[in-house]
């Protein structure tokens, strides 16, 4: 796929993320990427495997699902109007197509969709937490006390170069491309840090549709082109869990960190989760990953 096409679609994806509660007609979105509406239809589907209208509808429904999980006060009618649905009944019909239940039933069934039951992991896989974990939350709390250093940090704004990856398959290839680009520019040193930003949540998005940014944290202004883009992680407050773990322990670590968050009375903010890696676990003699997990909080 032409790298310029990918760059322009990246711009469109970021625009949609920021404007889900605004008008997103085909003409408006096409103008953002300097496409004609006809060409946007064709190129967007070729890159994302979804039509532009289907993508926008899905992102809006997933946004409302996230709000239903985390905000008790907002009404379903308010949500339907805020995110572009003409009526409450239209919103309910569309929501049921995605989740099989109505928005009100979804809100009542919150434990089923809780981050404690379904977690986002480094390898992009999501597995429902077993009954043993649910029954042994205390064990997870004790485990994380012994295996992690947890801090509340005010993080500065981070600048990153990134490649978009949709779905977990191919994330490794995205990092390989990013490193191939960075090495000749002298951007990849022994102090460089890679990061994965999650733009979607595995608990409400089908795994093959989850969008991630395979990223390199930048220490200087850098020009990019083609499929390499620039993005930022805005400054803010985060729960930061520092782990030295095997790859098979990523799920357990994310789960325990969210339990720690809930147990300590923190509330996740409406910003993206991310991971920062401090080593290449393949180069560690015991295949240990040294990694920080970041949960944005209010």
From TrEMBL:
Residues 10-109 form the HTH araC/xylS-type domain. One of its GO terms (molecular function) is DNA-binding transcription factor activity. Keywords: DNA-binding, Transcription, Transcription regulation. Pfam families: GyrI-like, HTH_18. InterPro entries: AraC_E-bd, GyrI-like, Homeodomain-like_sf, HTH_AraC, HTH_AraC-typ_CS, Reg_factor_effector_dom_sf, SmbC-like, Tscrpt_reg_AraC-type_HTH. Coiled coil: none annotated. This is AraC family transcriptional regulator.
């Amino acid at each position: 796929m032409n790298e310029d096409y990918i760059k322009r679609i990246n711009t469109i994806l970021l625009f949609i993320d920021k404007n889900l509660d605004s008008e997103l007609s085909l003409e408006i979105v096409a103008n953002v990427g300097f496409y004609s509406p006809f060409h946007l239809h064709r190129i967007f589907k070729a890159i994302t495997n979804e039509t532009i209208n289907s993508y926008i509808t899905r992102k809006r429904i997933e946004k409302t699902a996230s709000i239903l999980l985390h905000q008790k006060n907002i009404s379903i009618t308010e949500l339907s109007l805020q995110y572009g649905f003409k009526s409450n009944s239209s919103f309910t019909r569309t929501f049921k197509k995605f989740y099989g239940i109505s928005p009100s039933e979804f809100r009542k069934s919150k434990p089923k969709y809780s981050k404690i039951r379904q977690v986002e992991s480094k390898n992009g896989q999501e597995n429902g937490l077993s009954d043993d974990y649910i029954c042994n939350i205390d064990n997870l709390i004790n485990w994380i006390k012994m295996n992690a250093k947890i801090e509340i940090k005010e993080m500065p704004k981070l600048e990153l170069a990134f490649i978009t990856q949709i779905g977990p398959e191919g994330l490794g290839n995205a990092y390989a491309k990013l490193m191939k680009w960075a090495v000749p520019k002298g951007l990849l040193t022994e102090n460089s840090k890679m990061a994965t930003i999650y733009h979607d949540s595995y608990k409400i998005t089908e795994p093959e549709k989850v969008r991630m940014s395979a990223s390199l944290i930048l220490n200087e202004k850098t020009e990019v082109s083609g499929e390499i883009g620039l993005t930022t992680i805005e400054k803010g407050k985060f729960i930061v869990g520092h782990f030295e773990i095997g790859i098979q322990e990523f799920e357990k670590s994310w789960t325990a960190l969210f339990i720690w968050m809930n147990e300590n009375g923190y509330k996740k903010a409406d910003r993206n989760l991310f991971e920062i890696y401090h080593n290449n676990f393949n180069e560690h003699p015991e295949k240990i990953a040294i990694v920080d997990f970041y949960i944005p909080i209010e």
